[in-house]
Design goal:
The complex is a heterotrimer of chains A (659), B (161) and C (197).
Chain A (H helix, E strand, L loop, with lengths): L2 H28 L2 H30 L6 H6 L6 H6 L5 H22 L5 H24 L24 H16 L1 H13 L4 H32 L10 H26 L3 H24 L12 H25 L14 H33 L7 H21 L10 H7 L1 H17 L3 H24 L7 H10 L2 H23 L3 E7 L4 E4 L2 E12 L3 E12 L2 E6 L2 E5 L4 E5 L1 E4 L3 E11 L6 E10 L1 H19 L22
Antiparallel strand pairs in A: 1-10, 2-3, 3-4, 4-5, 4-6, 6-7, 8-9, 9-10
Helix pairs in contact in A: 1-2, 1-6, 2-5, 2-6, 5-6, 5-7, 6-8, 6-12, 7-9, 8-9, 8-11, 9-10, 9-20, 10-11, 10-13, 11-12, 13-14, 14-17, 16-17, 17-19, 19-20
Chain B lengths: L16 H7 L17 H13 L16 H15 L4 H12 L14 H24 L9 H9 L5
Helix pairs in contact in B: 2-3
Chain C lengths: L10 H35 L14 E2 L16 H5 L5 E6 L4 H13 L5 E6 L3 H11 L5 E5 L3 H6 L6 E6 L3 E6 L6 H13 L3
Parallel strand pairs in C: 2-3, 3-4
Antiparallel strand pairs in C: 1-6, 2-5, 5-6
The chains are: A alpha+beta (659), B mainly alpha (161), C alpha/beta (197).
Keywords (chain C): Cytochrome c-type biogenesis, Disulfide bond, Membrane, Redox-active center, Transmembrane, Transmembrane helix
Protein name (chain C): Redoxin domain-containing protein
InterPro entries (chain C): AhpC/TSA (IPR000866), Thioredoxin-like_sf (IPR036249), Thioredoxin_domain (IPR013766), Thioredoxin_ResA/DsbE_sf (IPR050553)
């Protein structure tokens, strides 16, 4: 398990990937079954080589092999074992290797689950994935070698930024990357379809599960990152519209649009060209986002490397992948057949509107993120684009989206009448009006009121949709249960995901009313915030594995009853001369009480401590909603009908499109 | 990954502030001294609102209210001094822009150069709607309601409406 | 359906659509690609820095300020700069700032051609004095900005930062990068020529 072995395995994976990119592709072109049949084996070979390479790096980290530059720079003997392992992807080189590994897993997954795919399509999809993987592995081998050696090997490493020694952050990158990289599969399907010159309902059906799966991971990844900043950074913030966050939000928005437009392809054979473009766009955003972040154009200083040579390599790779796919798209898309007709007012129409709004928000976030460097390049002026801009520019687009989310899923396909659908939503409409009345009294600010109201509308109408489908209260309960059993899980999944959006939006809206207080107190002193009485009862020093901690004890009382005791602390790390604050959060599901301890002032005999106390109403709902969204996606995926590769392609071009 | 670059530890290398932030408490928080706050809660709220519009110059897209950088702290003090003198929010922001340019505003002013930025929400929406309408217009035939074959297909796909 | 099956009449339509799709998409992606390439190349040579604040100070008179003495020099105020008859370089520095220490050598060479006045930014007086004793003192006069408040009026966001003041007290040049970089020195020399220094 030496680092050299790891590098060799990586090189081997690269050879497999190149073969995977060339041979099955040739096979599909020449209709050579033997060459096409190589695809799954090559994908598996690449995965095995990547796993071996990755294990070598993990092994070097666990055994404290400081002769490996990457381990030396990011690890130390005293680091806990968990963070030695997760630290492997906590740096530039290791994260690229992880990226390649996930791409390898995607390729092997298509090989494993895609047995029902037509062999030429499967060969092409795996081939495209191989080509992308080869690019990454070459990048890793040439400019970001994680196995580089240092001689002589020092006795101890330089340690890891203590901020990164956190379970939330340790598992954040793999989940987020799975989301990013997962969109490589719809991308590969899109390229394969363009090569074949054929996009039909079966294609839509094959692509959709992959898009949904990637979307679930990306949703969880973004939520986990936001949660991390909430509980680690220690001042109650959760989203800063910082370029790095935006880089994950942009593919999420276009991926959400993709997931919805793929439904139209599958069900009605319409929006085909658009869906192919979205599949290409989403992966392009994933790629360029992560790499722009690393190039130093968007960020000033960060933990990852900022080597311009890497930037040039990445740019060439991006140019090849994005430029190549767009050229192919422009060449082939016009000759794709146009799909089924539909009236503007119809399910298809509402999904078109969903796509327009999502893509508009996506365009705003993209423009806002890229504007500062472009201004700087073109006019030599620097500007900042931050939270006030993004709030003002995106929320007005999100509100109509929320409105249409309510009744869109209930519209019939092809040609619909609005009124019968709206009439069925009267309960949800009443609930929304009631919510509006409550929020006008309870919340301050126009946008929080509107968003909270819309959240109730989304949740209410999604529940109505499901109850309508089950004919609840119209037929007997046992009949409803019968209906529930025959209703596809994807219908429940979609409603659940929409409810998740509502829960998140409600959390965001109410969280805007958070209160906080910064106080300097003696031990024993009481403070009031949001109807709670906070008392600092004790502060003591406790040693940790590689740090010393100042741990406070804060008792929180409500109407004289002891609610909870929290222990926020402040850690001083030995190896990097850094301190971190450990926030203490007490949640009851409806609100968070959030305490932070700061500096110690005054003489040791009678010290005072700075405390920062927050009351964050509905804060947990923001992430809970994201979890519900992902669960909705997972529920859809578990649907038998959604399962990867299930359908067979119609032999003739199509019946539906022929009208 | 995003979080790695977040917040507190990101300062410009060039400035040497990096040195300070590596040796001093990196994870301090925004207003870390209660004495910084204005006694009048209304004025303090105004100061916080102004601070949320101003960028901590040496951080990544954070407002001075959210940052522990030394300069952000100085600027917070300046904002509060001006607010205590009874200046309007616009006056305080103008004072800051006079010194640091538009870089300090987290929401850039509408000028010819930022027209595309501020116009993007409307532009994107218009492009989307106009192209959708054009595509609808081009199709002369009004679609019939679902045919029996289509209905059967949708039923098979598990969506029988 | 593949393109071979398209009837020849439709060929023009297909070509038109190809252009309609290809030109904006590839054009947009191409422009972005070229822009990013220029940015990366510019960042490598130092000619482009997307994170420069570009405080709008050049072409303005020096702000109103008074700086107390910082050993081993004497402090100065707005009036001193306005009374000047030859250009002077104002340099904000601190003993805790590594790029400032790296810049000292270049400043010591430069002060032979151009007087440099220093401002110790948020620094303990004894630490600043210690640095100048150790590394050499390039400054003709030195003021102390203990609280960093004068720096804000100058639009300083970090140290080192340098300003060239023309006779009469006008700021004619500003750099937020250290003078140890040859590009920054060249740009200073050009600015100096323009004001006849």
């Amino acid at each position: 398990m030496s680092p050299e072995l790891g590098r060799f395995a990586l090189a081997l994976a690269c050879v497999f990937a190149l073969a995977q990119a060339i041979l099955p592709m040739q096979g599909a072109r020449r209709r050579d079954r033997r060459l096409m049949a190589l695809a799954p084996g090559l994908a598996l070979g690449q995965l095995i080589a990547l796993v071996a390479s990755f294990l070598c790096l993990v092994n070097a980290a666990v055994t404290n092999d400081f002769s490996v530059a990457n381990i030396l720079e990011n690890s130390s003997v005293t680091k806990p074992l968990l963070y030695k392992i997760t630290g492997v992807w906590g740096n530039h080189e290791g994260s690229i290797l992880l990226w390649a590994l996930i791409l390898g897993i995607c390729g092997a997954a298509v090989a494993a689950f895609g047995r029902n795919l037509p062999s030429a399509l499967r060969a092409r999809v795996i081939g495209v994935l191989g080509g992308v993987a080869a690019g990454f592995e070459l990048f890793c081998l040439t400019t970001s070698d994680p196995f580089d050696r240092v001689w002589p090997a020092p006795l101890d490493g330089q340690g890891m930024n203590p901020l990164l020694q956190d379970p939330g952050l340790a598992f954040h990158p793999p989940i987020l990357y799975t989301g990013y990289v997962g969109f490589a599969v719809p991308f590969a399907f899109a390229i394969a379809a363009l090569m074949e010159g054929r996009v039909d309902a079966a294609w839509g059906r094959w692509v959709r599960p992959w898009a949904v799966a990637a979307w679930c991971f990306l949703t969880c990844g973004i939520a986990l990152g936001s949660w991390w900043s909430y509980y680690v950074l220690g001042w109650g913030g959760y989203w800063f519209w910082d370029p790095v966050e935006n880089a994950s939000l942009i593919p999420w928005l276009s991926g959400t649009a993709l997931m919805h437009s793929a439904i139209v392809v599958e069900k009605r054979e319409a929006l085909k060209i658009w869906t192919v473009l979205l599949a290409i766009g989403t992966f392009s955003f994933s790629l360029s986002g992560t790499f722009l972040v690393r190039s130093g154009i968007l960020n000033s200083v960060h933990a990852f490397a900022q080597d311009p040579a890497r930037g040039i390599f990445i740019l060439a790779l991006l140019g090849l992948v994005i430029g190549g796919s767009l050229t192919l798209f422009a060449w082939r898309a016009p000759s794709l057949t146009t799909g089924g007709l539909f009236a503007p007012v119809s399910r298809e129409g509402s999904l078109v509107l969903n796509n327009i709004l999502l893509c508009s928000i996506c365009a705003v976030v993209l423009t806002g993120t890229m504007y500062p460097p472009f201004m700087s390049l073109l006019f030599g002026k620097t500007i900042s684009v931050g939270k006030p801009f993004f709030d003002a520019a995106t929320i007005p687009l999100a509100i109509p989206l929320f409105i249409f989310m309510g009744f869109g899923p209930m519209l019939p396909w092809k040609r619909a009448q609005l009124w019968p659908v709206l009439r069925r939503l009267w309960v949800a409409a009443l609930a929304t009006l009631a919510a509006f009345a409550v929020t006008v009294i309870g919340l301050s600010g126009v946008l929080p009121i509107l968003c909270a109201t819309m959240a109730v509308w989304i949740i209410g109408s999604s529940l109505t949709d499901i109850s309508n489908r089950l004919a609840l209260f119209r037929v007997s309960l046992s009949q409803s249960i019968q209906r529930a059993k025959s209703l596809p899980r994807s219908a429940f999944g979609a409603a659940l995901a929409h409810i998740g959006v509502g829960v998140s939006v409600l959390g965001l809206a109410v969280m805007s009313q958070a209160q906080h207080k910064i106080v300097e107190v003696h031990v024993g002193q009481k403070e009031d915030l949001a109807g709670y009485e906070w008392t600092l009862t004790d502060v003591r020093t406790v040693p940790g594995p590689n740090y010393m901690a100042m741990v406070a004890t804060i008792e929180i009382r409500h109407n004289g009853h002891l609610m909870t005791v929290m222990h926020p602390s402040k850690r001083s790390f030995n190896s990097q001369n850094q301190t971190t604050t450990e926030v203490s959060i007490h949640t009851n599901g409806l609100s968070d009480l959030y305490g932070v301890i700061g500096d110690k002032h005054g003489p040791d005999s009678n010290p005072t401590y700075v405390l920062r106390l927050h009351y964050n109403p509905l804060a947990p709902w923001m992430w809970f909603g994201a979890l519900i969204m992902a669960m909705g996606g997972a529920l859809s995926l578990s649907d038998r009908r959604m399962r990867v590769g299930a359908p067979r392609r119609a032999p003739a071009p199509d019946v539906v499109a022929a009208e | 990954m995003k979080a790695l670059f977040h917040g507190k530890q990101m300062f410009r290398l060039k400035t040497g502030l990096l040195l300070v932030c590596l040796s001093a408490p990196v994870m301090a928080w925004a207003v870390d001294d209660p004495s910084e706050m204005l006694p009048d809660p209304k004025q303090e709220r105004q100061a916080e609102a102004i601070g949320a519009q101003l960028r901590c110059l040496v951080c990544q897209n954070e407002s001075i209210e959210d940052s522990s950088a030394g300069l952000a702290r100085d600027l917070r003090k300046v904002v509060r001094e001006h607010v205590a003198r009874g200046e309007s929010s616009q006056q305080v922001i103008d004072w800051m822009v006079a010194r640091y340019g538009n870089f300090i505003r987290l929401s850039p002013p509408v000028t010819i150069a930022t027209l595309l930025l501020w116009g993007m929400p409307v532009l994107a929406l218009l492009i989307g709607i106009v192209s959708a309408v054009m595509i609808f217009r081009r199709r002369t035939a009004t679609p019939e309601p679902l045919s029996e074959a289509e209905r059967a297909r949708l039923r098979e796909l598990g969506d029988g409406r | 359906m593949s393109s071979e099956q398209t009837p020849p009449d439709d060929q023009n339509v297909v070509t038109r659509r190809r252009l309609l799709l290809g030109v904006p998409l590839l054009g947009g992606a191409g422009i972005c690609g070229v822009a990013f390439w220029k940015m990366l190349a510019g960042m490598q040579t130092g000619s482009f820095n997307p994170h420069d604040i570009n405080a709008p100070v050049t072409g303005r008179p020096v702000p109103d300020f008074t700086l107390p003495d910082q050993t081993p020099g004497t402090g100065f105020a707005t009036a001193d700069l306005k009374a000047l008859t030859r250009p002077v370089l104002i340099n904000f520095f601190a003993s805790w700032c590594i790029p400032c220490i790296a810049e000292m050598e270049a400043l010591l060479t430069l002060q032979k051609q151009l007087p440099i006045w220093g401002v110790a930014y948020k620094d303990k007086p004894e630490n600043a004095a210690g640095l100048l004793k150790h590394a050499g003192n390039p400054y003709a006069r030195i003021g102390s900005d203990r609280e960093g408040r004068v720096a804000i009026d100058w639009g300083v966001s970090g140290v080192p930062e340098s300003f060239l003041i023309a006779p009469g007290g006008m700021i004619v040049w500003h750099s937020a990068a250290g003078l140890d970089s040859p590009e920054v020195r060249d740009s200073l020399k050009n600015a100096l020529k323009a004001v006849g220094g």
